Amino acid sequence: MEWHLACTAPGSVQTPADLPALLDWIAAPVPGTAAQALREAGRWTLEDPLPLHDQDIWYRTRVDGNGRRLLRFNGLATLAEVWLNGRSILVGDNMFLIHEVEVDLAGDNELAIVFRSLDVELARRKGRARWRTALVENNALRQVRTTLLGHMTGWQPAVHAVGPWRAVELIGQMGAPHVRAKRIRATLDGDDGLLDVSLDIDSSGTRPEARLTVAGIDAPLEWTGEGQLRGRMRVPDVEKWWPHTHGTPTLHRVRLVVGDFEIDLGQVGFRSIDIDGGVDGRGFALRVNGQPIFARGACWSTADLVTLASDREALAPWLRQARDAHMNMIRVGGTMVYESDDFFALCDELGLLVWHDFMFANMDYPIADPSFRASVEREADQFLGRVQAHPSLAVLCGGSEVGQQTAMLGLPPSLWSSPLFDEILPGIAAARCPDVVFVAQSPSGGVLPFQVDTRVSHYYGVGAYRRPLEDARRADVRFAAECLAFANTPAASTPARASDIVPRDRGAEWDFTRVRDHYLAQLYGVDAAKLQTEDPVHYLRLSRALSADLMEAVVAEWRRPASRCAGALVWMLKDLSPGPGWGVVDSSGIPKLAWHGLRRAFRPVQVALTDEGLNGLAVHLINETAAPVSAKLSLLCLQAGDVVVMKRECELTMPARSARTMSAAELIGSFFDITYAYRFGPPPLELAAVALDDAGTGARLGEAAYFPLGRSAITHDPGLSAKLERDGEGWSVVVQADRFAPCIQIEAPHHHAGDEGFHLLPGEQRRVKLLPAAGAGEKPPTGEVLSVAPKRATSCRFG
């Protein structure tokens, strides 16, 4: 279908027949949004987005065909009226609903949709909320089922979601078997897989033989009523689905044969998911196939704020970046949109668990309104109906920060929840997805909903609340469904723009650069304001390093074996627009230094260090994989960058699914004030570094560094050198240092580094891929390798 779009004043045109003959129509992609179409026509920009909710927006197309067909509208944002050949066939007021309409086509047909002005509708809505939120500009949005994207202008442009944002489908001739609804549940019974299937099929009143095939097993299905197929099959000793950090995300294709027709029902994975509340019942530890999982990852927004694209091509690069950073969970928060089938299919394939909120956040929703309730019930049922078979779906959550919002306003506990979160959504989730964990709200579980040492929390102690790093341990976080939000500076290869947005909470007098500057002073001992004025380039380099250092330090605390924390989801995976946003990947897809830090911190086989004061330096060894790891552990203590004051090595075996903490004293074999806690004399070292290498191949498995005097004590010249090399995979730069070189950063026009933020030990050499960005061309890349310390950055050129 070729679609076109035109804008009219609100309410000025009632039906397609009333459209002015000389109306200005432009081509419009579907699925897509009005902002997308207007941008492609040169009439709209992200830098200065025109409002779209103040007008009616029309779409129309021609449809060829004859006879009975099914029109499926997979998403209409938001107040939609649809006509076929001038006859009204649908009125919708929920962006998240799928609509199906049987129609009779007659040759050349006109299909028209109008999206009515949301501003006009919000002004018309009555009813007083029991509280207001600063999250959005207009609290009347609580009465309309639409995304909050574009309305949270403290941290994103005002990009209004209007249009057929999901596909409009014309389904072929009625008569062929058509699956109207399906319920597929894949579970485990010991080592066997159980597949329960319930299908509603339009088979034109016939009951042909029906069979199901999965994992090489074939089983008959039974007709149990008009158009109803049911069946159960057992798959002996089935290959299980695992998050990729812990195993292989094995999937099995499900095929239905009805008479002479074969229908692909998608893929399933056999897995079990439950929650371990701990000895005190206040924990929230996911178990997959009976195995405890440290869930780590990031919160998701959308692949593209303008287009709201949700197909494989748009989603895959972002989700692969999550997988490549050793993330194993993605959370879709209640301020976004319900994600697509392709999103879940990709997460299935990549081994990423999904925590998915229903689309509710912060506001007082009118659930007592019967029409609102009915719409929400249909919305939730449809969403779960299409995603319930995906093994990646691990946690369903009623919504985001509603209880926190009311509690922080000082309102009584009776307002912290509602039947929406306590009855309606959990009831639908239990019916549709009984094998998925349900959480009423995020955060929730404590005496106060936002208490961080109970169940699910949003932890911004190290972050917006500017608590010291030690608070990450003191807070005793059990599961951080949001955490570590910083104004993460993009890579040097990402061009800065005057329109770049710095995130802030709406109504706050400060933005998140203030948070970053606070930790620049605390961690690096620098005056951020002075440094930004006198040496803005070094300020940006240190800012990049800071986010990675903070994230690595906090995750190390939470992953150590003695920690009771079982999950950390960073806010957020990607930026919605250019600038130093919360994302660890910028809006163009280039990873920031924070992403590289998380990739190190999230490794399935890992070594980490924590300062235990008078107890010395703790070395934490983690192996989440299903196989034992034979490794060599090395400890190196240095002064002045290359003076070795202590060196120890040992070989060890890390059992499968194991975590162990050992004291550095076990390696050293005698007293050595490695944390400089006893202070019997001058500091015996400036830094301690550990490396974990594969005992067979020598491949680096993990590494960590500790600075007992702080990072600002590193002032020596590292003696950097770099050379450019090319192989079959492209360009790389080989970096080497004569002395310890902290925080290696690489700046190369039109390229970004495959690894950054790591430290180099004396004489160590590392090869780093240079990945081309827009405008790279065919010429060999040129640039600088830098070692960034708080007081100076040392560089050498290459190319």
Short description:
By secondary structure, the chain is of the alpha+beta class.
Classification by helices and strands: alpha+beta
Ends distance: 50 Å
- Nearest-integer average pLDDT: 96
Beta fraction: 25-35%
Radius of gyration: 28 Å
- Architecture (CATH level 2) name of the largest domain: Alpha-Beta Barrel
Number of helices: 13
Strand order of the largest sheet: 23-22-21-20-19-26-25-24
**Oligomer description:** single chain
Number of domains: 5
CATH topology (fold) name of the largest domain: TIM Barrel
* Total number of strands: 40
Helix content: 10-25%
Shape: globular
> What is the CATH class designation of the largest domain?
Alpha Beta
Main β sheet profile: 8 strands, parallel
Q: Which blocks of ≥5 consecutive residues have pLDDT under 50?
A: none
- Give the CATH H-level superfamily of the largest domain: Glycosidases
Task: Report what the structure shows.
- This protein is α+β, with helices and mostly antiparallel strands.
- Helices cover 17% and strands 33% of the residues.
- The chain has five domains: 3-171, Jelly Rolls; 178-268, Immunoglobulin-like; 273-601, Alpha-Beta Barrel (TIM Barrel); 605-712, Immunoglobulins (Immunoglobulin-like), CATH 2.60.40.10; 720-798, Immunoglobulin-like (Sandwich).
- Helix 5 (370-387) packs parallel to helix 7 (419-432), helix 9 (512-524) packs across helix 11 and helix 11 runs parallel beside helix 12.
- The longest helix has 24 residues, at 536-559.
